Amino acid sequence: MADVLFEKVAFIGVGLIGSSMARRMSADGLMSEIVACARSEETRTKVVDLGIASQTFEDPAAAVDGADLVVIATPIGSCGAIAQAIAPALKPGAIVTDVGSVKQAVVDAVAPYLSAENAFVPGHPIAGTEESGPEAGFPELFDGRWTILTPTDGTDAEAVEKVKVLWQRMGAMVDTMTPSHHDMVLAITSHLPHLIAYTIVGTATDLEDDLRQEVMKYSASGFRDFTRIAASDPVMWRDIFLNNRDSTLETLQRFSEDLTALQRAIRRGEGDVLEELFARTRKIRRGIIDAKQAY
Ligand code: NAP
To answer: Among 14, 171, 251, 277, which one is least packed by beta carbons within 10 Å?
Structure first.
């Protein structure tokens, strides 16, 4: 069995990401005990039935008692209130980390509540599915995927290293960058594509009935791929756009300009402009496959 990295780990939020981490940690013996916190009794019962945690709590402060590592894995809009609730109950030396898809807003919301005795190591695994809840998680979710850590200047280097090793032991590759840089990168690679998918699927939903039926019937021609992305959790994505407003709006502005240019090329019949762009984008797809981030 591999070395134990943390004796007791507390998950605040144990849905797709939290339960995948917990499953992997248990499978690989990375901790001795896992406890979990969720608001609803339904989630807590599922967590126990699935054998993900030895104990569950409604109160986040009770969950973190005696924990060496606390993982906040709830929608990002709740991270500040959770930090406020757990701060007085944290064991001195306990490390706090999170998995939120936006980093600067989470750092701003969480860090002010934590004392110098509790390092906060913000993190974001670039892995997921459109499913939610504890039953959606699986231990291989992070295999070969990147996790980005966004420590700030004052973050304890030893704590960052421990969280980095944890992610590596869960199968991930780890990169480090500033929270604001992370938010700009993710605005283009994740947040904008989701916004586009939500828009396209929304537009199709607004069509008259007969046309909408046909959109569903012939969805394999492209629409279907957008529906997968647009089926992602509504609360999680509401929080992402509200908390990464500036980078999303900046990226959206560039996108609108490029879309207008493409519109003009189509109107003017400029086939060479279209072909040149489509050839470039095809190369990007091949690059992603070469980097083993798609198959
Ligand atoms: P999820 O499957 O919906 O799970 C969220 C969990 O948090 C549930 O157990 C939920 O249970 C609990 N919860 C929600 N609000 C809470 C609160 N205020 N206090 C305590 N527990 C609370 O969500 P997820 O997909 O794992 O996402 C969690 C985080 O990971 C988000 O910040 C998201 O940005 C990030 N992330 C997601 C993905 C992805 O693809 N899904 C990828 C990378 C990162 P109750 O409702 O019973 O409380």
So the answer is: 277
Pocket mutation for ligand 1, best pick of 12, 17, 97 (most atoms within 8 Å of C-beta): 17
Contact by Cβ (8 Å): 159, 42: no
Distance 1 CA to ligand 1 centre (A): 30
Residues with CB under 6 A from ligand 1: 12-18, 37-40, 43, 73-76, 78, 82, 99-101, 124-125, 128, 132-133, 233, 236
173 Ramachandran zone, left/alpha/beta (phi>0; psi -120 to 50): beta
Can you list the domains of the chain with their CATH numbers?
A: 6-177 (3.40.50.720), 181-290 (1.10.3660.10)
Convert the pLDDT of each residue in 133-165 to its tens digit: 999 999 999 999 999 999 998 999 999 999 999
Closest C-alpha to 255, from 195, 198, 209: 195
